[in-house]
Design a protein that fits this description.
There is one protein chain. The chain is α+β, with helices and mostly antiparallel strands. It folds into 3 domains: 94 residues, Quinohemoprotein amine dehydrogenase alpha subunit, domain 2 (Lipocalin); 93 residues, Quinohemoprotein amine dehydrogenase alpha subunit, domain 2 (Lipocalin, Beta Barrel); 352 residues, 3-Layer(aba) Sandwich (Beta-lactamase), CATH 3.40.710.10. Strands 9, 10, 11, 12, 13, 14, 15, 16, 17 and 18 form a 10-stranded antiparallel β-sheet that branches. An 8-stranded antiparallel β-barrel has the order 1-2-3-4-5-6-7-8. An 8-stranded antiparallel β-sheet has the order 21-20-31-30-29-28-27-26, with helices on both faces. Helix 3 runs parallel beside helix 6 and helix 3 packs across helix 7. 51% of the residues are buried. The N terminus is likely disordered.
Length: 606
């Protein structure tokens, strides 16, 4: 959640090229050498979540201290002061106090790139590339290139910008125009004798091909799990990203109680309900649950009903974290247990150094990428359905289980999915059965499931793409622990009530119920940093200034946002039947608005 009061840097969720996400995410940093302050001074350009262009200016004083400013030209915000710079080895972080935001990441390529995460609510990938001195004589592949990637039913325009610097190094960025994803940085760029290739690490993709004799076209293929033809034609002018509309805020009112929240939101959302994001023609359905001081309320807007069932995406990760806490309290696993020991014998070799533990997975510090590179991304309708445990084990065998030195916070659907599969292996159950045994049965969550009954299917609301086209439900197998759960606002409020008051959880119905109070307490313990001003517990993200725990989620046709604040004794869940798009997640926006109304602060408008 964010307490921002400036329009800068709206919370958006990048749907990376052919890699639909299950929730908030970040970019994997590449190894770098220790850097002095002088190595990071200069001007850098970046694009937040592939959509919002930014300019970063870093100044290094003779004593090694750093200062700087950041610009968001599309929002008319120039010269916002950065502060609290911290440079430790190859790790750099700073804050932008005027928007309650912060950046943390790694210095790579000798200071040519700063690869990391912007945090202002949900953590978002943000890589800065140093502004270069162009080569006196451009390389033959320098320029703007446009192509069309066809993968199954999806057709995407891909724009490539290539330039070389005075030292002869090639640089490039990739834009997925139809997904609103701009400025994805390239790496491992090679041009030699008409052959050209590069990688896009954030989506585990690679292009390779040849420049035509006349220099007007690039012919080749894109590989991202599978290989697809992708040719480019030279362009005279780049297609620019659309401007981001500035955020506006409703004035603060007295802190709102749960019983009054629907009335407050009816007033706040009046315009959006008539002609905006919640208008009837959009087919949007929203179900909201709020809780304060023991008072519950569930209500809905649009096509949703209070008992509608939604996919909750990465909010599933918090259930996987609680399953881990339960199994620790029951003596079935230990937090420092290597995940390798919970996989079939012989799956992967023991590394020479430290290996990935259950703690590394549940705190997103395993070093694993966001998704496995053997996931078949050609199925954009139901991308996880055919990814089985054998595929997961094959990836682990190839990748290994060594933990990178000083592994940072890297949001990984793969990592939490692996955790869920490993815990299911230890229990001798499927993930769905383990979820029921350890969490949903003790808490009596009747509608929180992986697979729906016939009756539940009748309440499963249709999901939609950002363009309001009907979306297929997602079936998730081996990575179920990362995002397979469906639920209702009512069930999730019961779940959040247990988070706020673990001591009130009934403990007499089963062995799993008897350990649940201690397990919930354990799952709230802050274990690692997740960016300046934010920590992570057992997958729950924690905003240190407000004391709020939160998580969000998104699948192909749904988005979700949940949070709870023990200090204020309030919580909320927002479920929406539209996935996140180029301008962000409606669930995140509504959740942020509710949190601000609970706290008596100005509330962001829809």
């Amino acid at each position: 959640m964010s307490s921002q009061k400036s329009p800068l840097f709206l919370s958006v969720l990048l749907l990376c090229l052919l890699m639909s996400g299950l929730g908030s995410h970040t970019v994997q940093a590449q190894p770098a050498q220790t850097q002095p302050a002088q190595a990071v001074k200069g001007n850098f350009s970046g694009t937040l979540a592939g959509q919002l262009p930014l300019k970063l200016h870093i100044v290094a004083a003779p004593d090694g201290s750093l200062s700087g400013t950041i610009d968001s030209p599309n929002q008319g915000a120039i010269g916002l002061a950065c502060g609290d710079f911290l440079l430790e080895g190859e790790t750099l972080s700073f804050k932008v106090p005027s928007v309650s935001g912060s950046w943390t990441g790694k210095i790579a390529d000798g200071g040519a790139t700063l690869q990391g995460t912007w945090t202002q609510g949900a953590p978002l990938p943000l890589t800065f590339t140093r502004d270069i001195i162009p080569a006196a004589k451009p390389s033959p592949v320098d320029g703007i290139w446009l192509g069309t990637l066809v993968a199954g039913p999806q057709s995407l325009r891909i724009q490539l910008t290539v330039k070389s610097d005075a030292a002869g190094h090639e640089l490039c960025t990739l834009d997925s125009l139809d997904q609103g994803a701009f400025g994805l940085p390239c790496s491992n760029i090679v041009y030699s004798e008409q052959s050209f290739s590069f990688e896009i690490p954030v989506v585990n993709g690679r292009w390779a091909g040849k420049l035509s004799a006349e220099g007007r076209s690039l012919s080749g293929s894109w590989t991202q799990g599978m290989t697809f033809p992708l040719d480019f034609a030279r362009q005279e002018k780049a297609i620019a990203p659309p401007p981001v509309p500035p955020a506006t805020y409703s004035p603060a009112i007295a802190p709102v109680h749960a019983a009054e929240m629907q009335v407050a939101l009816d007033r706040d959302f009046e315009k959006a309900l008539k002609s905006g994001a919640l208008a009837p023609e959009t087919a949007v359905g929203v179900t909201i649950g709020v809780l304060r001081d023991g008072v519950h309320r569930v209500f809905s807007y649009g096509t949703a009903r209070p008992d509608s069932i939604f996919e909750i995406g990465s909010v599933s990760k918090t259930f996987t974290g609680l399953i881990l806490a339960q199994m620790i309290e029951q003596g079935k696993v230990q937090l420092d247990l290597p995940v390798r020991e919970l996989l079939p014998a012989g799956t992967v070799a023991k590394p020479p150094g430290r290996e990935i533990s259950l703690l590394d997975l549940v705190t997103q510090h395993s070093g694993l990428p966001r998704l496995p590179d053997n996931l078949d991304v050609s199925d954009t309708v139901n991308p996880y359905a055919q990814y089985r445990a054998a595929d997961l084990y094959h990836f682990v065998a190839q990748h290994g289980v060594a933990v990178p030195k000083n592994a940072p916070f890297l949001y990984s659907n793969l990592g939490v999915g692996l955790l869920g599969q490993a815990l299911a292996n230890r229990a001798g159950l499927s993930y769905a059965q383990l979820l029921e045994q350890e969490v949903t049965s003790p808490l009596e969550l009747k509608d929180t499931v992986v697979s729906l009954t016939t009756e539940q299917q009748s309440r499963f609301i249709q999901g939609y793409t950002p363009e309001h086209r009907q979306a297929h439900a997602w079936d998730i197998d081996a990575l179920a622990g990362a995002g397979a759960i469906r639920s209702t606002a009512g069930d999730l409020l019961t779940y959040l009530q247990a988070q706020l008051h673990p001591q009130q959880v009934p403990t007499g119905k089963s062995p799993s119920a008897r350990t649940l109070t201690k397990a919930i307490d354990l799952s709230h313990e802050l274990r690692q940093t997740a960016g300046p001003g934010m920590h992570i517990a057992f997958t729950w993200l924690h905003e240190d200034a407000s004391g709020t725990y939160w998580h969000n989620g998104a699948t192909g046709g749904y988005s979700s946002f949940v949070f709870f604040n023990p200090q204020g004794d309030y919580a909320a869940v927002v479920l929406v039947n539209v996935t996140a798009g180029p301008h962000g997640s409606l669930a995140d926006l509504i959740g942020q608005h509710i949190g601000q109304r609970f706290a008596g602060k100005p509330a962001i408008d829809l």
